[in-house]
Design goal:
313 residues, Inosine-uridine Nucleoside N-ribohydrolase, Chain A, nine-stranded mixed beta sheet, globular, binds beta-D-ribofuranose, binds calcium ion
Amino acid sequence: MQKVILDTDPGVDDALALYYLIRHPDIDLLGVNTVFGNAPVAVTTRNARFLLEAWSHPAPVHPGAAGPLTPDMPAKSFPTHIHGQNGLGDHPVASPPRDEDDTAARFLIDRIRAHPGEVRVLAVGRMTNLARAVRLAPEIAELVRDVVLMGGAFRVPGNITPAAEANIWGDPLAADIVFGAPWQVTAVPLDLTTQTFMTRAMLARLAAEGGPGMQLVADLSQGYVSFYAASGYDGMLVHDCTAAVYLTDPDLFSLAEGEVRVIPDGIARGLTLMNPVDRQGPLDAWADRPRQFATCGGQPEAILSRIAQVCTA
Ligand code: BDR
Ligand code: CA
């Protein structure tokens, strides 16, 4: 069994990723950390609890960062046009959000120390909790098995600006810290996740075959599907679940390798720049950084089939 901590901002595509993890027989989900992003952290925390309760999973939820480490960020706004006013596509959620202590970074540190070499962190929101954890306890970089994150746009345009993908744009300093720490990072970027498009028909089939748990995913995804429909697409991108599949089926992904920097501010804020392995020269800003990976290619149809298989089993 793989020990996994999910760091997330549910978030409609986050919900599918969480469902995939709890349905997968090889995943031992140690806990769910939350972060601001698709909604305020009190809302993403409430949503994580709502989902785990609906799916009868006992993983603890630890609230994390309410805002970025990056200074001088533009005023916070939340993508309600994509994830709804409540972060779950306006699917009814009875319990109200509430303010709670931020325990996510401490939970990461404790669990990584408790299981040296075993814990995989899957981060599908802003990288703020992870960056704070590795700043507080730098030794966890040697103790974690690896970090897999949904984020970045290496050879394609971003989805917030032409430069930047949302999870990186929302806290570029945190992302730069995460790519620069001496642990193994694999980013699953827009390069691939803009190809893992689940059609409306496929979502309906999964709901019909997958029982009430998958029906809930389909119900709360309807607003997200409408968002894509407004641009002429009949379905939805499954960004975060694509990163979850990387944990279980890495053979379906192809890797680019190199040192990564994140542009912290200006018009290219959040741009992810990889120094290819074969480049020689005075790359000061990339020097002394660890080589990391990005799944810039892969097999989208096989990834979607895997999601279907796990979520309907
Ligand atoms: C990422 O941004 C969020 O809106 C999604 O949940 C996903 O993690 C895609 O850019
Ligand atoms: Ca997310």
